[in-house]
Write a structure and sequence with these properties.
single chain; 270 residues; alpha/beta; Rossmann fold; seven-stranded parallel sheet; 8 helices
Length: 270
């Protein structure tokens, strides 16, 4: 059976754990060689080992997405080591759970620096290469928090709304250039970043591989936006478009904010 991404070259940020790890493994399963980018080399090497068992190439690149020059160097290394680049998955990010009234400005700036500006550092590092070759896919992991804000995620929501808006404009401006832009909007996934949050039974934590499969679908089908899971996420956005008060009520009555469980949160995927 022909693999969907046979012979393609991909790079994934935040590839050391969670969605980034799942994306890297899924891309490899579909035939792509993968450059793994994050700060934790030890965890990246573990992912690389799994990719190599699939018979695909894996390149480990230690970098922090908040360092623009470091990201440019990482992209250059990925292109050199893989012999080109066709797919870039902007996935690195951090999560902060804190009521808006209790947030400090330095906390908000940190989330924006990683989740929004870190993403843009990746875009501006890889975009000239994709434009020059007149092909390539830039796919970003946004969040349903970028469609409908859910308490107490104010800082995270702000960064994701900014990301959503930027990518909506970018994809329109790149129309006809050969460069595809896709946005994935996951609900809460079972990753280390939200290990400290228990979700209600109506919206349990999802498998990160469902997001990884959406990334592949976005690349193969040139999809602009994909929500994961599709039905419940679309339902919430439709409700918000009809009546913000109604969608606010849905968030409350279904306890979509989740509950703290005392587990120490992990934010390492930069």
């Amino acid at each position: 059976m022909k693999l969907k991404l046979q012979g393609k070259k991909a790079a994934v940020t935040g590839a050391s754990s969670g969605i980034g790890r799942a994306s890297a493994l899924r891309l490899a399963k579909e035939g792509a060689d993968v450059a793994l980018i994050a700060r934790n080399r030890e965890r990246l090497e573990e992912v690389a080992s799994l990719i190599r068992t699939e018979g695909r190439r894996a390149v480990v690149i230690e970098a922090d997405v908040t360092d623009a020059e470091g990201v440019k160097t990482a992209v250059g290394e990925a292109i050199k080591e893989l012999g080109g680049l066709d797919i870039f998955h902007c996935n690195a990010g951090i999560y902060l759970r804190c009521p808006a009234k209790d947030l400090r400005m330095d906390q908000i700036r940190k989330v924006m620096e990683v989740d929004y500006f870190g993403c843009l550092n990746c875009v501006y590092a890889v975009l000239p290469y994709f434009l020059a070759q007149k092909s390539g896919s830039i796919v970003t992991t946004c969040s349903m928090d970028g469609k409908k804000g859910v308490p107490p995620d104010a800082a995270y929501v702000g960064a994701k709304f900014a990301m959503n808006g930027f990518f909506q404009v970018l994809r329109q401006e790149l129309r006809g250039s050969g460069v595809h832009v896709g946005i994935i909007y996951p609900s809460r996934m079972d990753t280390p970043q939200i290990a400290h949050v228990d979700c209600p039974k109506i919206t349990p934590k999802g498998d990160p591989d469902t997001v990884a499969k959406a990334v592949v679908r976005s690349v193969v089908k040139k999809k602009k936006e994909l929500m994961v899971p599709s039905f419940s996420c679309h339902l919430l956005t439709w409700a918000d478009a009809i009546s913000p008060s109604f969608s606010d009520w849905l968030v409350r009555v279904n306890r979509l904010s989740g509950d703290e469980n005392g587990v120490e949160p992990i934010n390492e995927a930069k």
